[in-house]
Amino acid sequence: EKIMNWSLILHEDGFWCPERLLRPLISFQRNYDSKDNDILLATMPKSGTTWLKALAFSIVNRDIYSVSQSPLHTSNPHELVPFEFQLAGQRNRDEGRDYHVFATHMPYASLPDSIFSSKCKIVYLCRNPLDQFVSDWHFHEQMCWDVKPEFAIEDALDLFLQGKQNYGPFWEQIQGYWNASLKFPGKVLFIKYEDLKKDCRSVVKRIAQFLQMPFAEEEEKNGLVEQIVKLCSFESLSNMEVNKPGKWNANFRVSNNVFFRKGEVGDWINYLNPTSASRVASLMKEKFGDSGLTFEG
Ligand code: A3P
């Protein structure tokens, strides 16, 4: 099933995905052989995936690269940390690395079995629905799809509320990872974009701890956590030459700058009226009920 000109298709597991990715995603589900040293970064699109990729890359490779020598100075995070559908052909993935980091937008229940039978760890980053939606809408406006969607934001919101967006429904994906993080806290770490904005340092330390590679006292004393936070900040990454308009991503048909728009909490207020916002709020209340999950922003 297609939704207007967004080229989304309903995966048999019940989530919407880009039509061109359906086969690669199914192939990943069926064939991916996860190893114990895998680290999977999971998100809804536009929830801060780029940021999480940069942070996780910096945390796990901190023995290999100093912050000043980080490949993030010359490559976009999406060129350093692949998505699951880009893994095929990366046979030499473990060369010289202790950890293998990659990302997914797939729901928890749809991940390959090997993810669960291996010791692979999952870091899930969520963002409040209004900012995620507004960010997604902008991204589609800038994307270089075959057909450029030109939706009024209200029309896009109607689709969002029906769960029809990349990897939607939003609430189903988030609930899946939220529940898993409560049930298997050693397997799934659940973090929020808003907490990263508020106190990135603490979240970075929590991620490192969860990955069983906590910062040593010496590293902390030397300010390594702060350096990583600074390197991966919106200001820093978006001002890198490689992330300027016109620098095309090696893995996507987009210019690297589209992954950096505003990077703020609460920007939705500039795009959605109070009626729209309350439609989203009441749906989220209905869906998340007393799960304990709340959103800020
Ligand atoms: P906005 O459109 O609200 O600015 P993703 O990486 O999942 O595609 O999400 C993109 C969103 O994260 C965009 O949000 C983008 O600006 C924001 N973002 C990207 N890098 C960031 C960073 N280093 N710090 C904070 N936000 C960042």
TrEMBL record:
<keyword id="KW-0808">Transferase</keyword>
<dbReference type="InterPro" id="IPR027417">
    <property type="entry name" value="P-loop_NTPase"/>
</dbReference>
<protein>
    <recommendedName>
        <fullName>Sulfotransferase</fullName>
        <ecNumber>2.8.2.-</ecNumber>
    </recommendedName>
</protein>
<feature type="domain" description="Sulfotransferase">
    <location>
        <begin position="36"/>
        <end position="292"/>
    </location>
</feature>
<dbReference type="GO" id="GO:0008146">
    <property type="term" value="F:sulfotransferase activity"/>
</dbReference>
<comment type="similarity">
    <text>Belongs to the sulfotransferase 1 family.</text>
</comment>
<dbReference type="Pfam" id="PF00685">
    <property type="entry name" value="Sulfotransfer_1"/>
</dbReference>
<dbReference type="InterPro" id="IPR000863">
    <property type="entry name" value="Sulfotransferase_dom"/>
</dbReference>
